[in-house]
Amino acid sequence: MDILYDCWLAYGKDGSMKWTEKYLRKLCILCSGRVIGSAAKELETAYRRLAGKDPERISEPFSGGCFILRINEGLCAGGYRISVSDDSIVVEGGDENGVLYGVFRFLVLASGGYSPESLNITEKPFFSLRMIDQWDNADGSVERGYSGASIFYEKDRPVSDMKRLTDYARLLSSVGINAICINNVNVHKTETYFITEKFLPDIAKIADAFSDYGIKLYLSVNFAAPMEIDGLPTADPLDEGVINWWKCRAENIYIHIPDFGGFLVKADSENRPGPYSYGRDHAEGANMLAAALKPFGGNVIWRCFVYNCHVDWRDRHTDRAMAAYSNFKPLDGKFADNVYLQIKNGPMDFQIREAVSPLFGAMSDTNCLCEFQITQEYTGQQIDLCYLVPMWKECLDFDTYHSGKGSLVSRNVLGAAGVSNVGSDLCWTGDPLAGANLYGYGRLVFDPGLSAEQIAEEWVRAAVTADNEAAGTICRMLLSSREIYESYTSPLGVGWMVTPHYHYGVDVDGYEYSPWGTYHYSDRNGMGADRTKATGTGYTAQYASHNEEMYEDLSTCPEELLLFFHHLPYTYMLKSGKTLIQHIYDSHFEGSEKAEELLLQWRSLKEKLPAEIYSEAENRFEKQLLNSRQWRDVINTYFFRKSGIDDIHGRKIFR
Ligand code: GCW
User: Fold this and answer.
1) Whole-model pTM?
2) What's the gap between Cα 385 and its chain centre?
3) Cβ(378) to ligand 1 under 6 A?
4) Which terminus of the chain is less hemmed in, N or C, by CB atoms within 10 Å?
């Protein structure tokens, strides 16, 4: 047992679930199947940790305390009910996955010290597809990974020891994840061959390990694979030879992996091949792959992160934020029913604050998914604390107004995909506190009605400490962390002042004259991207009229997004009565003060926390403080030099 490795499955870490022994010692499993087998195994693991011995299997309920598992067809797929009484604990599921989710839910909450009465729970998944995307490469590296090497690959081969992957499947299914794509959307040379005999037998073993936990395996594919693998002259989705090639591939994949989920595709994006090369559109590209998978029940997940990454900064008309909508909106209704469009939460790229993508709700005749980035590429890289659940919740709760008031994003999508933050580090997520994001992602997409607070509390109690006071402090730290990170890195939604390519640390003009389309347009008078219809790029018109008007008008545009939508003078007066430039100075000074408070709060918990967790995180809070100071000083100096306006409080700004 290792508290870092076990994450939120650290049963019995602080004696909080002693009371469950009475039930766990006798298991009465009234259903069967491979996933039920995993649920039973989990109960055994828990009991062994608590009591140091194996539980007994019984075939009939025992009134002196036992743990019962059964299927209840009255519940829906993935749904479960937990009932706690003196006699027994009963977990019923609508299907095998439901039973497994119920078992995990019980164990996680019990080990977090929640009372027996509060564990009478009935839940069902809100979304049908709850997916994790790995950006892992065959060479063992992880694109945008901050937690060590890949746990899936080593030296250009899939790993053969399934122990770590099985534990990963446990963690994921414990929060209701039911699909995983195991390779990077940027499919390089080696991974292009994953759909061939060279790799399929090994990948089938991985699929098997995840299937035990009710998780379907997907692969990212290279759109040009027919050319790269078999030397076809084209990858044109309407070419007979190409169509047949993919059909044969699909057939063969299903021989190896009968419950294969399908393909994830990044096409015509950041120099990846796609249908545009052949004068075809994304529906033609996606539908061709969908037809190949259809006979086997597979899906195509097609990403909408399609934009021009070779723009000329001199051109003020091209607006990257408009790209997803411009590329996909005209295709609404043209996608096959086993195609899902995967839309990033914001129109730019996983910034700490950006508007919600206008594509949500605009594709009423298309299956859509929301893509979130659990790995903290732009949000602190698992060094700076950044609990992302509030941001994802904001997106799911956003009212698109596409079919009148109440057209929330959560009602416009059928599921979500989250880019994993996991690697080979002992604690899985680099920063042990980043485990809250992995846990939180799963919980939120299982039930978007949950509050960020509740999710944080559940995670802290199960993964770190069930001590009320310490847990309360950590929850407060988590819940303030996104605003803290934002306050020293990105004034009012402007984003992108990061070190190019690496994306940690400050470089105000790093992307300002680059081809990536990510500009803040600061000059001596003001800053911000004008995306209005009246005077800017016209991006606001991609929203339904209620939102278009809200963003277009300075007086109704939410202030945290002012510079995302408007170019404003430094002297612009905010609702707080502060000028824009004063806001920048204040938020950067305050941001780094708060980063210091985080460190001090963490230190105040030293005696109460498991030593390993304490020191891994302390080290990061120290780095965060330095990072925040660097951001503060560079940003404040930069804008002082541009504007020539002093801080009214006369604090230290380097000239
Ligand atoms: O955020 C950007 C990242 C790329 C990533 C790309 C994408 C996998 O910087 O590393 O590539 O998005 O989402 O495709």
Assistant:
1) 0.98
2) 16
3) no
4) C
